[in-house]
Write a structure and sequence with these properties.
Low-confidence stretches: none
Largest sheet: 5 strands, mixed
Structural class: alpha+beta
Shape: globular
Oligomer: single chain
Helix content: 10-25%
Strand content: 35-45%
Radius of gyration: 16 Å
Mean pLDDT: 85
Number of helices: 3
Strand order of the largest sheet: 3-2-1-4-8
Order of helices and strands: EEEHEEEEHEHEEE
Number of strands: 11
């Protein structure tokens, strides 16, 4: 089950929001997924919902499934949620542009997710940069001074390690 040091990471993809609950050593406790919201408005219609609210709701559903679903447990708080979003994310956690999530452009995903997952630190970053950070911490880029990771999914992304640091 989840412990008081649980970190949850979510990857917002073109078809699914995938999340894993991690122990401090990076080992996986549980995983879950929900469909990525498809909220492209028909031509001529304007959405009445807040940009990105549906995406933040999907991230919160994944967190809830990880806490309460099979393999999870509610015996401790989620201390952090890392969100990998496709596209351009600024330092404040706002999704500036996303080819996969056009309805969420301009959304402050950090604030939207924070309001749905109280008392957790929320960090939002480009999904390929998140992949590079994860590989540097636990995988193929561990100890590497220079590296490149290419992510393939609904789109193509990339993350760089330069002089031992992931360049965000």
């Amino acid at each position: 089950g989840l412990n008081p040091h649980t970190v949850i990471t979510d990857d917002i993809g073109g078809t699914k929001v995938f999340g894993v609950a991690l122990n401090p050593d990076g080992s996986v406790i549980a995983e879950s997924r929900v469909a990525t919201p498809q909220t492209e408005e028909p031509v001529g219609l304007v959405s009445t919902s807040e940009p990105g609210a549906d995406v933040a709701d999907a991230v919160a559903r994944v967190v809830a499934l990880l806490r309460n679903g099979p393999g999870g447990g509610s015996d401790g708080p989620v201390v952090a949620v890392g969100v990998g979003a496709p596209g351009m994310v600024d330092r404040e956690g706002t999704l500036r542009f996303s080819p996969n999530l056009p309805s969420a452009a301009g959304a402050d995903l950090r604030q939207l997710v924070s309001s749905r997952v109280p008392n957790a630190v929320v960090i939002v970053e480009n999904d390929a940069n998140c992949a590079a950070l994860a590989e540097q911490a636990f995988g193929a880029l561990r100890g590497v001074r220079q590296g490149l990771i290419v992510t393939l999914g609904t789109g193509i992304g990339g993350g760089l390690v330069v002089e031992g640091e992931v360049r965000l």
